[in-house]
Fold this sequence. Notes:
2 domains, 414 residues, TIM Barrel, globular, 30% helix, 20% strand, seven-stranded antiparallel beta sheet, alpha/beta, single chain
Amino acid sequence: xxxxxxxxxxxxxxxxxxxxxxxxxxATAAPNPVPxxxxxxxxxxxxxxxxxxxxxxxxxxxxxxxxxxxxxQAKNKFWWDGLDRAIGNANAxxxxxxxxxxxxxxxxxxxxxxxxxxxxGAASMPKLKDWxxxxxxxxxxxxxxxxxxxxxxxxxxxxxxxxxPKQMATLTKEASKIIRKGDPTAxxxxxxxxxxxxxxxxxxxxxxxxxxxxxxxxxDAIAVxxxxxxxxxxxxxxxxxxxxxxxxxxxxVPSSKELWDTEVNYGIKGPGKKIKGRSITGANAAxxxxxxxxxxxxxxxxxxxWYFWSPATNRIGITMQDGTTGAIGYQTAFDWMSGSFYSCxxxxxxxxxxxxxxxxxxxxxxxxxxxxxxxxxxxxISCNALNQCSAxxxxxxxxxxxxxxxxxxxxxxx
Length: 414
């Protein structure tokens, strides 16, 4: 498999390798290599031992039959079997685990009419005593097996949360205290917020950040779900992420706090009834998946979890399963990126350089339209996100569209 070499790139070489690329509007360089955990997945059948056929570094345990209400089925009764299997199987695959602590069990619901998934009352505010008992139980049972804890899923949507942003911040603060005491190395991730429904985003996200600020930022990462609307594409997603970055700055979120995208896919119908969903297959599926993870580097998203590893379903636009082009694009991007230092630029052509001063490789793609690109002096091979490769000649002009294309040599291909 193609792996970029995990050594630093000098700024002088980066500049010389970008001959023929349109002027960039922004640029980012990393002091550390891309961690495997940047590539996250949802694996709904993880408790049943499913092993995805792609390389990945982190898993978000959600939609796996192991939410709070499914584990603690009564006030003093815990059903650990499913969560034990899910965490054990994820540990066996040597991936970092993000576990979602919500949502409210039926027996603990203050209002059983608030929310129905995965049980009645799941969207209601629990009693703090019950919440703290639950968080303590999880941390005490799993300790170092869980790398990070997310407070809640999609708390800006009434399906999942009908309390206030301030109440969610309180749950966040109280969970953080318990987790910090039980496992100081664990990461605390905020309740996630969807981006595509503007009214729900504005109603929850800014007030939640304000409340977290008042509580002295009891989290290590701010979480969003970057699904664009049903007709959107990676460029639409990039615009949503840019809006989030503006809000984070406006809310004075410390730069030390990471930005995690804990669910992403395309073609999901809505928001509303008028925007239809769509299936994305073939070259577009590979291209869009690879673009998503490449965009993370240039936009400052520290981790993304693809939703989800499962056979084809009408819920999502890009299917991630053995042999699908979406899975090929995921694996190809992982091979380009994971373990490598990088420097990325945004412009009419987006570029990410990987490798060292001698064995550099570069990935190029356009967010919109098609642009001419001059093959750099060091390159002899190009490969697209479908891992289809061909010989190239330095100085050759190639049309680049939204299909990410890697340029390098045999030394950087292996």
